[in-house]
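Page 37, continued from 36.
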C-alpha cells in the first residue's frame, strides 16, 4: 500500500470490556481475560462453545431514533463507537462535519436477524416477518448510521476477512486525496450468534467468539496520531505460505521505526497451534510493551483489527511512542499498521 499518510482524529469502541475505547485499553493493558459465557444453540442439539459478549449499555449510551427501533446489535454497537469517535475528534456527534464519508467493514454481518428471518421462513413462510428482512442485508448498518448521524459524503460497505480494515483505510485515503470526502469515518463491527461461535470451534475448540465495534475518524491533516505506514498486502494461499511472509511483515514494520522502541499489538489468541508463526515472527523487536488483545477480548472476526487499531492509536497518544498493529489474517493476506504519536 502506497497511500498518503492519514491522521487519526478520533477513536471509539464497544467491546466486551465496555462501551468506550479507554475501557477497552484498560482491560487489554491489565492482561486479564474477560469472563466468557456458554453459547446455546436453539433447539435440542447442543454444541459446547463460549462467547465474550458486550455488557448492557449504560444509560448515556442508549440511543433513540426511529431508524434504530428494530436495528440489530451490530448497528447499536457501531452507532455508539461512531459517536465516541466524533466526540473524541472534538465534533458534536449530533452535527458531524460537512464532507464526512463512511466505510463500514464486516465479515459476518447481521447474523442475528438473518438467523431469525430464515428460521421463520423454515417454520412458516407465510408468517415470516417482512420487517426483519431489511435488517439481514450487509449494508443495513451503514444505512442506519449514515441516516442517524446525517452523513453527507460517500458511504460504502466492505465485506472481507478480519483485517479488511486495511483495505478500508486504503479506500478512505483515496477518497480523501481525490476530494470525494474531507474526512472519513471507518467502522468495523460484529455481533455474536450461536452459528459464528460454533464455526470458530471447528478451527480449535478453545476459540472464544466475541463482538463489538471499532471506529476511527481519519483525515489528511489535523491533530492526532498518524498512520505512517500501511504494510501489505503480503499474499498467501496456505498457512505454510503465511508462515513465510510474516517475517517480511516484521522486517518492513521495524524498518519504519528507524531504531526506536514501539508498543506491539499482536493478533495472538493464546492457542499455540494457531499462534506459533506470528509469535515467532514478532519475538525479536524493539518492543517497549507487547499486548495481545484477542487473549483478553476474544475473537471478534471482522471487528478485531479495527479494535486493535483503536488500541494502537490510544497507545500512541498516551505513551508518546509508535505503535505497531499486527494483522496477519487467516485468509489470503497479511498486513501491519504503524501508528506514530502526534508530533
Amino acid at each position: 500500500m502506497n497511500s498518503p499518510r492519514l491522521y487519526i482524529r478520533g477513536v471509539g469502541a464497544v467491546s466486551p470490556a465496555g462501551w468506550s475505547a479507554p475501557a477497552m485499553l484498560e482491560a487489554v493493558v491489565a492482561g486479564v481475560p474477560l469472563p466468557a459465557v456458554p453459547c446455546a444453540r436453539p433447539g435440542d442439539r447442543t454444541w459446547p462453545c463460549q462467547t465474550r459478549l458486550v455488557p448492557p449499555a449504560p444509560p448515556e449510551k442508549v440511543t433513540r431514533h426511529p431508524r434504530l427501533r428494530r436495528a440489530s446489535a451490530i448497528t447499536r454497537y457501531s452507532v455508539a463507537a461512531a459517536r465516541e469517535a466524533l466526540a473524541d475528534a472534538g465534533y458534536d456527534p449530533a452535527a458531524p462535519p460537512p464532507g464526512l464519508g463512511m466505510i463500514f467493514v464486516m465479515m459476518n454481518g447481521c447474523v442475528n436477524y438473518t438467523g431469525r428471518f430464515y428460521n421463520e421462513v423454515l417454520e412458516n413462510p407465510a408468517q415470516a416477518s417482512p420487517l426483519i428482512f431489511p435488517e439481514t442485508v450487509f449494508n443495513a448498518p451503514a444505512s442506519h448510521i449514515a441516516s442517524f448521524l446525517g452523513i453527507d459524503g460517500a458511504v460504502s460497505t466492505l465485506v472481507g476477512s478480519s483485517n479488511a480494515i486495511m483495505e478500508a483505510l486504503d479506500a478512505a485515503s483515496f477518497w480523501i486525496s481525490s476530494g470525494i470526502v474531507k474526512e472519513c469515518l471507518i467502522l468495523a463491527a460484529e455481533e455474536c450468534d450461536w452459528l459464528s461461535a460454533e464455526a470458530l470451534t471447528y478451527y480449535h475448540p478453545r476459540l472464544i467468539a466475541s463482538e463489538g465495534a471499532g471506529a476511527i475518524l481519519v483525515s489528511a491533516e489535523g491533530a492526532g496520531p498518524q498512520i505512517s505506514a500501511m504494510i501489505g498486502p503480503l499474499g498467501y494461499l496456505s498457512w505454510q505460505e503465511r508462515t513465510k511472509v510474516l517475517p517480511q511483515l516484521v522486517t518492513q514494520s521495524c524498518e519504519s521505526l528507524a531504531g526506536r522502541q514501539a508498543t506491539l499489538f499482536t493478533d495472538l489468541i493464546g492457542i499455540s497451534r494457531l499462534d506459533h508463526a506470528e509469535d515467532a515472527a514478532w519475538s525479536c523487536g524493539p518492543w517497549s510493551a507487547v499486548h495481545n488483545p484477542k487473549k483478553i477480548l476474544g475473537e471478534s472476526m471482522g471487528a478485531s483489527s479495527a479494535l486493535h487499531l483503536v488500541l494502537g492509536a490510544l497507545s500512541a497518544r498516551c505513551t508518546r511512542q509508535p505503535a505497531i498493529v499486527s494483522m496477519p489474517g487467516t485468509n489470503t493476506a497479511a498486513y501491519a499498521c504503524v501508528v506514530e504519536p502526534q508530533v
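The mean pLDDT is 92. Flag for discussion at group meeting. The first strand starts at residue 6 and ends at 14.
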